[in-house]
Every structure is written in C-alpha cells, then in structure tokens.
Amino acid sequence: KQEVTQIPAALSVPEGENLVLNCSFTDSAIYNLQWFRQDPGKGLTSLLLIQSSQREQTSGRLNASLDKSSGRSTLYIAASQPGDSATYLCAVKGTNAGKSTFGDGTTLTVKP
Amino acid sequence: GAVVSQHPSWVICKSGTSVKIECRSLDFQATTMFWYRQFPKQSLMLMATSNEGSKATYEQGVEKDKFLINHASLTLSTLTVTSAHPEDSSFYICSAPTIAGGLADTQYFGPGTRLTVL
Questions:
Q1: Do A105 and B43 touch (CB under 8 A)?
Q2: Ramachandran quadrant class, B101 (left: phi over 0; alpha: psi -120 to 50; beta: rest)
Q3: Which residues, 6+ apart, have CB-to-CB distance to A59 below 8 Å?
Q4: Could you tell me if B51 and B32 are in contact, meaning their C-beta atoms sit under 8 angstroms apart?
Q5: Chain B CB contacts of A42 below 8 Å
Q6: d(CA B65, CA B50)
Q7: pLDDT at B105 over 70
Q8: Which of A37, A99, A102, A107 to mutate to test the interface with B (most CBs of B within 10 A)?
C-alpha cells in the first residue's frame, strides 16, 4: 500500500525567501506525481504534474523534481510571496486503477 | 483546460436526511471518477472509484450502503450520503482523469462540497 509523507507539516517564512517542500512515497512504482495547492475551505488547484519518466517540471516560480528510485519529490518555490500562503499537497498515482494517494500536506505561511 | 464542477458547493442538513452531491466533467468525458473526503486539517482520503456503467469500487472501511455512488453518464457521477449524521460532516471532493481512467494523465478536481449535518 502506497504511503505518502510530507515534511514539514507547517512552514512560516518571510516574504522573498526561497523554500523547499518535501514529499516522500514508499512504493517507487508510480505513474505520475502531482503537486496541488489548497486554500482554506477551497478545492484543489493543480500546480505541476511530473510523469514517472520525467525528472522535473517548472512553472513560473515553481519547480518540482522527482527521484523515483529514492521515493522523493521536492517542490521549490522561488522568491515567495504572501499570496503563496496555502496548503501544498502532493499526490502519487499508482500503476493501476488511476487513483491517487495524497500526503497530509504542508501548510505554508509567507509573512509580508 | 479540463474543468470539473460540483454541486452544491455547500449544504446543511438535518441528521437522518439524505444528501446528493453531483460531480460533472464539463468539457471531457470521464468513464472513471474518484470521490474523496477531507476532514478539517487532514488530507484527502479516497472513498470510492466511480465507474460509468458499472458498480463503484469502495475503499476499505467505506460503507457502500451509506455512500451511494451512481455514474449515470460519461460526464456525471453522483454521491448520495444516506441518513447523514454529524460525523459525516466533511469536505467531499471529486476528481476525474482526462483520459478515461488512463494512467498517463492529469487528475482534475472539483471545487468540493462542504457538508454540515446538524
């Protein structure tokens, strides 16, 4: 059974800092990994999708990497802004059924 | 891009009543949809996989008679919480992959439905 862990659970940084969120998973046989953002009381917004054959994906100030062999992914946020404050979830999609297993999330607070 | 909608966005009901939540893929067909539940300050937990034209597949510990799922068409799945109780109060989110349950695709999530049972 796939287990996904996100560290840290919460993170508070001053505006402008670069930061890294971590996601680890126990079963390396994955098809893709997706990073989401969730604002309080809201649904999910997809940030980046990394296929199992890829090593990283970039979108604006966001960069996600994937190391399947070690069961790890990182989300790098450059020059953080108060608007980046949210909970960040990673989800791993397995090799069958197409369902996703989510981590518990990292709640990020960027202080002005 | 692909869009998934949910209705209603929030609902308050009395204990013992049933509540139906709809999940629609607006510009693509989805033979498979997934229903998740999220309790406050917790992550999303998969409840069941909804399959168009066949029975849903429920995760361990999820009561299929309490959470009725109907995938009536290629763009609509419904989740009915029967005889709802306060412990069923949660945030319910559906998702649909863009390629009929295919593996190399993106999951698009609905905005969620917040259910409060009094």
A1: yes
A2: left
A3: A47, A48
A4: yes
A5: 111-112
A6: 14
A7: no
A8: A99
Query: At residue B100, does pLDDT exceed 60?
Result: no
Nearest to A30 by CA among A104, A103, A100: A100
Minimum Cα–Cα distance from A6: chain B residue: B43
Residues of B in contact with A100 (CB under 8 A): 34, 46, 95, 107
**Yes or no, beta carbons of A100 and B107 under 8 Å apart:** yes
Question: In whole angstroms, what is the distance from residue B27 CA to residue B31 CA?
Answer: 13
Token couple for A92? 């791993």
Residue-level pLDDT at B1: 61
The pLDDT tens digits for B32-52 are: 899 999 988 788 999 999 988
Shortest distance between the Cα of A15 and any Cα of chain B, in A, equals: 24
- Decide if B111 and A43 are in contact by the 8 Å CB cutoff: yes
pLDDT at A109 over 80: yes
What is each CA distance from B19 to B79, B85, B90, in whole angstroms? 8, 11, 12
Local confidence band at A64 (pLDDT 50, 70, 90 cut-offs) = very high
